[in-house]
Amino acid sequence: MSHKPETQVLHAGYRADPATGAVAVPIYQTTSYQFRDTDHASALFSLSELGNIYTRIMNPTTDVLEKRVAALEGGVAALAVASGQAASAFAIQNLAKAGDNIVSSTDLYGGTWNLFANTLKDQGIEVRFVDPKDPQAFVRASDARTRAWYAETLPNPKLEVFPIREVADLGRPLGIPLIVDNTAAPLLARPFDHGAAVIVYSSTKYLGGHGTSIGGLIVDSGTFDWAAHPARQPALNTPDPSYHGAVWVEAVKPIGPVAYIIKARTTLLRDLGAAISPFNAFLTLQGIETLPLRIERHSSNAAKVAEWLSKRPEVSKVIYPGLQTGPARERADTTLRGGYGGLVGFELAAGRDAGRRFIDALQLFYHVANIGDARSLAIHPASTTHSQLTPADQARTGVTEGYVRLSIGIEHIDDILADLDQALAAAGQARVAAE
Ligand code: PLP
Questions:
Q1: Does 297 lie in the same domain as 263?
Q2: With contact defined as beta carbons under 8 Å apart, do 420 and 305 qualify?
Q3: End-to-end alpha-carbon separation of the chain, Å?
Q4: What mean pLDDT is predicted for residues 36-45?
Q5: Which residue's CA is minimally distant from atom 8 of ligand 1?
Q6: 240-272 pLDDT per residue, tens
Q7: Is 160 found in the same domain as 24?
Q8: Complete DSSP assignment for 291-311
Q9: CB under 6 Å to ligand 1: residues?
Q10: Number of folded domains in the chain?
């Protein structure tokens, strides 16, 4: 039976523990699993039977998390990993090796930018950055060794929704999958409905929501025809020496269209070892149970904050999808359902120092490098999350000196606005005193 998201977050992928009947998903805090006999052990290792081998590669608690998020996104399978960073890295390394390239939107989380511009480059994987406003730029930047395109659904700081449909449709005939980071818009956006092939998440943010657990996920849509493009996608179409010559699209055929995700699990997770702990998988599941309620409240609170800020004389600009006009707003309205998310950016007319004073004066908002917590959060990206980027690269990703990013929580709106009000006043007063 296919359920609605509000039901899936509580039920998908699990119905009482087979061993104990426990209704809550148990934390299987174990490293390894007893094989029934030697035939069973070799069947598991040869993938002729699926089952638990070792928690670096799979775990029953983590398995529920993977099934639940795959169901929520309408995908066929998912892989949970230790962080959102590991998810982005694996999503690409699963297709590209030294000498290959990918094309990425410039509008990225600063950590992803660093991974792409430096670490993947050091590994021989070139990342070509293009302006997401021009979908054809992805085609122009690609060549025979382009293995994937990459973007974020709702990238901050610009908060301009990515044209998933246009770009995915350009890539499919070329055999190039679109990988979409949906971290900032779970439930609001369903990238597979718009043609994305793979979704990645930092579950550290809205999926968990409680701010207790770092984690990440890769979700496979199962709709990308890897076998139709053997030259474009050699990693899935040629014998893999690391798994006794398996050709992934052939080897997994009896299981389903899951070549991409099985390869990520059985090679990258096995070899690089960025496994999520069963405890963090459990905590992430706890968070997901309330995701629909939280997302609704994040979105309605953020809409009120954006509206309120836009009327304040101290604020020169508010960045929020619901206040955009033109093509950006059209994309937001065709991609996001039920709200514009919990992120709001703004610039103070008095510039960088006023921005810093504002953040120092906040009493309810936490000043942290995170988004998507149930609590309200604030940060100055130019001096923190995006500080390792060159000024030119900061500008390309939309970070200006005076930009303040707010991640609006689920507290009472009156308390959120009161804190913003007193911090704006404090930022202004300090300036008057200094003059
Ligand atoms: N993607 C986005 C959009 C993020 O905001 C973040 C973290 O801030 C990441 C990926 C990386 O996730 P993690 O911190 O879980 O490694």
A1: no
A2: yes
A3: 67
A4: 94
A5: 370
A6: 999 989 999 999 998 899 999 999 999 999 999
A7: yes
A8: HHHHHHHHHHHHHHHHHHHHT
A9: 83-85, 109, 111-112, 152, 181, 183-184, 202, 204, 214, 216, 371
A10: 2
